[in-house]
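Re: the 208-residue chain
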Amino acid sequence: MHGPATAGWLLVALCAVSGGLCLLRTRSGVAEQRGSAGGEALMGFGMAAMAVPAAVLTPPRWIWLVYGVVFGGAALHALLPARGRMRGRRHPHRSHHLLGMLAMVYMAGAMAAAPSGAHTAHAAGGAGGAPLLTGALLVYFTGYVLWAGSRLVPLPAGAAGAAGAAGVAGVAGARGPTGLWGWGDRPELAFACRLSMGVAMLAMLLTI
């Protein structure tokens, strides 16, 4: 009991911190940084609540139906054309963001359909999802975690300097000459958030 509960709380902490960092990114002056930060914050906090050990909280079955509605609406919103400066231009992370929301809907549905109590079944494993779909999601998020992790690997000194200069120039251009550099503008923060949530998604899918 102690082992799974400890792992559950670690997963809660990881998702909650990721959600908080995504909230920080919503204050960025860079449109591309703000593009999906709000939805990713929602997903981070939703995953944190979903990962709470069943010994502490066992929500009623209808909670998972609410999850499905909320994240289904978020998935529909991700399909809408971007507004403002993003209008008419495809956001580079829109497909990943959409698939993450659909994965949340899938997990919520699997928990709601579990015969012995959704949250308890999720914590113990075998919540009753479709094996083929679960396997496809596991393959996708494993690939994404490896890719996102590779983007955070330090570059050689020369390449890092060139990439850093290009990144600062890009942010300055997006914010304007009077913009201030902030943590919400850092591209590596976005990759770290998505990497953390990808790892958490893998851990949760393994219990389906």
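Residues 31 and 86 are 7 Å apart (CA to CA).
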